[in-house]
């Protein structure tokens, strides 16, 4: 089964059901703050490309989310180039690939940054609250936190996947886009 494309109108729904926590967090932040710093735009933007959001929809998505803070003119001048660049339409025309878990886990987010892996970069309190919001049961939260304490961040994410989908994920999570595809597979089966 292929999940080749996703349109803007479906994005809120699939963000709730099928985005891993790192991307849910960025997605919620851009909706809340109407802005994301560069690291967050890259991490979420490339993920959305991998999910199947086409370039025109990506431009429309970011422009609409930023609109309360960024004029259309400024958006076109300061942000559109980078989005087209990620889609290989500018510069060296490299088609950039979405980041793997390993890459996301290894970054060091600065103050005001929302990218990175929540299992690694959130405080314990924030992580627990985020897991509860995702619908993870209190027992499963303890199992997830146990993995986090032992620095097994991808296993923590895998346990979260299993808890919210009620379905096992034997291969383990190693890429946010894999999380998405596996989730859609479970939900559509
Ligand atoms: Fe995202 Fe990977 Fe961290 Fe899960 S383990 S939250 S998919 S970076």
UniProtKB/TrEMBL annotation:
<feature type="binding site">
    <location>
        <position position="101"/>
    </location>
    <ligand>
        <name>[4Fe-4S] cluster</name>
    </ligand>
</feature>
<feature type="binding site">
    <location>
        <position position="22"/>
    </location>
    <ligand>
        <name>[4Fe-4S] cluster</name>
    </ligand>
</feature>
<protein>
    <recommendedName>
        <fullName>DNA primase large subunit C-terminal domain-containing protein</fullName>
    </recommendedName>
</protein>
<feature type="binding site">
    <location>
        <position position="117"/>
    </location>
    <ligand>
        <name>[4Fe-4S] cluster</name>
    </ligand>
</feature>
<comment type="similarity">
    <text>Belongs to the eukaryotic-type primase large subunit family.</text>
</comment>
<feature type="domain" description="DNA primase large subunit C-terminal">
    <location>
        <begin position="12"/>
        <end position="180"/>
    </location>
</feature>
<feature type="binding site">
    <location>
        <position position="157"/>
    </location>
    <ligand>
        <name>[4Fe-4S] cluster</name>
    </ligand>
</feature>
């Amino acid at each position: 089964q292929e999940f080749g494309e996703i349109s803007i109108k479906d994005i809120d729904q699939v963000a709730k059901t099928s985005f891993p926590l790192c991307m849910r967090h960025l997605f919620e932040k851009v909706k809340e703050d109407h802005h994301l710093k560069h690291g967050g735009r890259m991490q979420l933007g490339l993920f959305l490309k991998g999910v199947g959001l086409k370039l025109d929809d990506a431009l429309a998505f970011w422009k609409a989310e930023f609109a309360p803070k960024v004029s259309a003119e400024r958006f076109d001048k300061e942000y559109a180039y980078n989005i087209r660049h990620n889609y290989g339409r500018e510069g060296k025309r490299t088609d950039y690939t979405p980041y793997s878990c390993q890459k996301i886990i290894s970054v060091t987010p600065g103050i005001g940054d929302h990218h990175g892996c929540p299992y690694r970069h959130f405080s314990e309190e924030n992580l627990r609250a985020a897991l509860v919001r995702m619908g993870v049961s209190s027992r499963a939260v303890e199992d997830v936190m146990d993995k986090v304490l032992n620095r097994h961040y991808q296993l923590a994410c895998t346990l979260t996947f299993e808890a919210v989908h009620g379905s096992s994920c034997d291969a383990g999570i190693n890429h946010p886009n894999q999380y998405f595809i596996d989730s859609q597979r479970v939900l559509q089966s």
